[in-house]
């Protein structure tokens, strides 16, 4: 097991140590004494945070077929008691009409708010924050153990064009907007917990309003940058046999060798596909949040997952549940992206001599290019020999 | 480095223009749920 694998295993084990444990199912409850209604055991089970099967309540909504005659007591209730009606409202099973228009206006009670809030303020912030600190610490340790990856034998002094201006523009459009999104997203998620106690409500308010504006609007630049980089680089990021060789050699990071590579090596391809897949996903959940209740996606997604994997995810979700799931998913995917991008920023700046030039000026040292992208250099020089552009 | 700055500036320009463009399509979420037509009076 090499140092990197050991570090990853240690991080996973450390994470599990903080895990409070998965919720367990509540034991079966005999409700004959209450005529099928809630018992003290049900209440105690919920207080113990056990998973209680709520179907005894959510499906107990009265029976219009057994409605009492109009002349009898409760005859005008239509076979449902007040409790049945409130349960219907509570579980969003009632036919509601309201004067307010809008897709969520007819949901009078939705009890997912507190679990969503607790998940957001608890595990999402805790594990997300720890993961960010963890990757920064790992990279710092890596830097001190491995040091900066230098050009063997020093730079050649001659340069070769690595990326054209339009490629660098697309990269920086994506990178600049992502950094802005990450910072404003972290401020929105964690500001209440960490900034308000330090700077107070009055100072935090304009910061939060400005962050929200920037986050909502710069998202379009991120999506444009994502499309640009995908179109420009997807052809160079199709996995091939060389990638396996590169991965087996660990990219030469520890062996100080230089496995062959074309324009993008396997490590860069992993970053590319991570950014594309997670970027697409975070964009979808972001759009769902930008246009509240207009773009529900989780019910349909769960339906597809259920049909493929045979799982039992809920496919009938209230509009608010869609928003809550979008928000949590948005945060989780964003954290994963931040972890990948922090590593990418490290290796593209302080971690490797000459790497930043590729996106800085677009011109890299020829020796650097030969050591990290030898086959690409051969392709470029062969094309230049034929009089074509790179 | 000029291209890097151009990318950052372009991101901010897009952010500034986004609300104006979205408004042209009636996509302003700020007003979508608070306009006079959002309440049914029948």
Helical coverage of chain B, percent range: 55-70%
Query: Per the principal axes of the C-alpha atoms, what is the gross shape of chain B?
Result: rod-shaped
CATH class of the domain at 113-150 and 158-385 in chain A: Mainly Alpha
Radius of gyration of chain A: 28 Å
The overall pLDDT average of chain A reads 87
Helix content estimate of chain A: 55-70%
Strand content of chain A: under 5%
* SSE ordering of chain B: HH
Low-confidence stretches of chain A: 11-21
The major pleated sheet of chain A works out as: 2 strands, antiparallel
CATH architecture assignment name of the domain at 113-150 and 158-385 in chain A: Up-down Bundle
Strand arrangement, major sheet of chain A: 1-2
N- to C-terminal distance of chain A:
40 Å
According to DSSP, the number of beta strands of chain A is: 2
**Largest interface, C-beta closer than 8 angstroms, per-chain residues:** A-B, 32 and 22 residues
The tally of helices of chain B reads: 2
Judging from the principal axes of the Cα atoms, what is the shape of chain A? Answer: elongated
CATH homolog superfamily of the domain at 113-150 and 158-385 in chain A: Transmembrane di-heme cytochromes, Chain C
Order of helix and strand elements from N to C terminus of chain A: HHHHHEHHHHHHEHH
Q: Strand content of the residues of chain B, in percent?
A: under 5%
């Amino acid at each position: 097991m090499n140092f990197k694998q050991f570090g990853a295993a240690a991080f996973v084990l450390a994470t599990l140590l903080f895990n409070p444990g998965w919720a367990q199912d509540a034991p079966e409850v005999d409700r004959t004494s209450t005529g099928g209604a809630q018992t003290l055991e049900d209440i105690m089970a919920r207080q113990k945070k056990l998973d209680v099967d709520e179907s005894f309540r959510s499906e107990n909504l009265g029976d219009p077929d057994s409605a009492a005659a109009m002349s009898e007591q409760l005859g005008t209730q239509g076979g449902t008691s007040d409790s049945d009606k409130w349960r219907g409202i509570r579980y969003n099973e009632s036919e509601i009409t309201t004067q307010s228009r809008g897709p969520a206006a007819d949901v009078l009670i939705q009890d997912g708010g507190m679990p969503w809030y607790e998940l957001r303020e608890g595990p999402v912030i805790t594990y997300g924050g720890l993961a960010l600190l963890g990757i920064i610490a790992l990279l710092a340790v890596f830097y001190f153990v491995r040091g900066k990856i230098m050009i063997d034998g020093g730079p050649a002094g001659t340069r070769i064009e690595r990326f054209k201006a339009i490629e660098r523009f697309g990269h920086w459009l994506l990178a600049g907007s992502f950094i802005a999104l990450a910072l404003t997203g972290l401020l929105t998620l964690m500001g209440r917990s960490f900034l308000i106690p330090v700077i107070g409500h009055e100072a935090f308010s304009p910061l939060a309003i400005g962050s929200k504006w920037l986050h909502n609007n710069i998202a379009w630049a991120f999506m444009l940058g994502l499309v640009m980089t995908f179109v420009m680089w997807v052809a160079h990021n199709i996995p091939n046999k060389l990638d396996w060789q590169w991965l087996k050699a660990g990219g030469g990071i520890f062996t100080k060798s230089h496995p062959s590579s074309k324009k993008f090596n396997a490590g860069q391809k992993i970053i590319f596909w991570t950014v594309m897949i997670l970027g697409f996903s975070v964009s979808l959940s972001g759009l769902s949040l930008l246009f509240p209740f207009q773009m529900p996606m989780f019910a349909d997604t769960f339906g597809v997952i259920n049909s493929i994997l045979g799982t039992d995810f809920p496919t009938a979700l209230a509009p608010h549940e869609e928003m809550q799931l979008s928000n949590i998913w948005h945060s989780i995917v964003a954290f994963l992206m931040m972890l990948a991008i922090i590593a990418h920023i490290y290796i593209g700046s302080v971690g490797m001599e000459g790497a930043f030039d590729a996106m800085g000026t677009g011109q890299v040292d020829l020796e650097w290019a030969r050591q990290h992208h030898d086959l690409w250099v051969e392709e470029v020089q062969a094309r230049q020999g034929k009089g074509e552009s790179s | 480095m000029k291209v890097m700055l151009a990318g950052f500036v372009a991101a901010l320009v897009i952010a500034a223009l986004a609300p104006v463009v979205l408004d042209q399509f009636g996509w302003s979420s700020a007003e979508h749920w608070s306009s006079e037509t959002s309440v049914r009076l029948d």
